[in-house]
Design goal:
alpha/beta; about 55% helix; two-stranded antiparallel sheet; Nucleotidyltransferase, domain 5; five-stranded mixed sheet; about 10% strand; 7 strands; 3 domains
């Protein structure tokens, strides 16, 4: 029997395979060690392979695509309804095999090695920023115990710390001064790491046409543009801009029944990092928009006239997400004040 569809439950060492033929009859149901996966699919005729979008999924998807197979990645929450019995690896593989054939299933675009590398840089930068903030707060809290109050802002700590260490009248012991010096050096090292990774992202951004195109949108800079390009991949995998905004969690949740539509707050689904970048970029636009001549009478002014700034920022982030889809899907450049043709 010719295998047409395979479901793989990915793991660190032991993979579970569930394969069916064109008549939906189970042909293969077995375990594979990690070093047996590639030989197994090498000896298999090209077929449809389903996986959950989890750790290592993009790596295995690229490997199997090189062998001629059609690979589809799915979010785990879309696979779960197809698990018929108690959860175990074999049942998960069977559910994946069933879910990947559904005509209305939503799939995750497969990222190439370059996209994964850039997103790894973004994640590393994000962790360094978080560690830098934590270190700055620790230094500020320790100084407060000695009656020394430093204003908020990392730059204030970098500015005040040398003065505090040199001040001989602040009653700080030698042990505590050594500790402050050590923590200050750690803070500088973290700040240097963040700066180095931002330079690396900037270099990638300047060499990527799509990223430079997105950076033309107000509220989107090199960081946001590069992260969006690497995360979205093929924009045509989304039918329209609203689907992209929904993927980012920037559209309202619904709880509708009986023909009555009830819209709630934004869903906050998808990538928190991308959504945060878009919302903060929108806030920066709102902060400077009031001083611009073209702000008067525009869409943003009307929106802020009936909603607070935080709601307006999310709405602008939603609009920017839709604009991102339009530019990527239709290969266009950003035009300020663009008005779509009436249908």
């Amino acid at each position: 029997m010719k295998i047409t569809t395979v479901g793989i439950d990915l793991a660190k060492s032991v993979f579970h395979i569930h394969a069916v033929d064109e008549n939906e009859k189970v042909v293969v149901k077995k375990q594979l060690r990690r070093n047996q996966v590639v030989p197994f699919f090498t000896n298999l005729e090209p077929c449809l392979v389903g996986m959950e979008a989890c750790g290592g999924a993009h790596y295995w998807a690229r490997k199997l695509e090189q062998l001629g197979h059609v690979v589809k990645l799915m979010a785990p929450q879309f696979v779960k309804p197809y698990v018929k019995t108690n959860k175990h690896d074999a049942a998960d593989a069977e559910a994946i095999c069933e879910a990947v054939k559904r005509p209305n299933m939503r799939f995750v675009s497969i990222k190439n090695a370059e996209q994964q590398a850039l997103l790894s840089v973004h994640r590393a930068r994000q962790s360094f920023v978080k560690a830098r903030t934590a270190q700055a707060n620790q230094i500020r809290g320790l100084l407060a115990e000695y009656g020394i109050v430093v204003p908020q802002g990392i730059h204030n700590i970098s500015k005040r710390l040398p003065e505090i260490l040199e001040d001989g009248e602040n009653d700080l012991s030698g042990v505590f001064r050594q500790l402050l010096q050590r923590l200050g050096e750690h803070l500088k090292a973290l700040d240097r790491q963040v700066g180095d990774l931002e330079v690396q992202i900037q270099v990638w951004h300047r060499d990527n046409v799509a990223s430079r195109k997105l950076a033309q949108i107000p509220g989107i800079g090199p960081l946001t543009a590069s992260a969006l390009v690497a995360s979205i991949g093929d924009a045509n995998s989304f039918d329209n801009g609203r689907q992209l905004a929904a993927w980012l969690g920037l559209v309202p949740r619904q709880h509708s029944t009986g023909g009555k539509s009830n819209l709630l707050g934004i869903s906050k689904r998808g990538d928190t990092y991308l959504r945060t970048l878009l919302v903060h970029g929108a806030k920066s636009v709102i902060r400077v928009a009031e001083g611009k001549p073209n702000y008067k009478g525009g869409w943003l002014e009307k929106l802020m006239g009936r909603r607070n700034k935080n709601v307006a920022a999310v709405a602008l982030a939603n609009k920017n997400a839709r604009t991102v889809w339009a530019l990527l899907a239709h290969d266009r450049n950003y035009e300020s004040g663009y008005e779509p043709l009436a249908v």
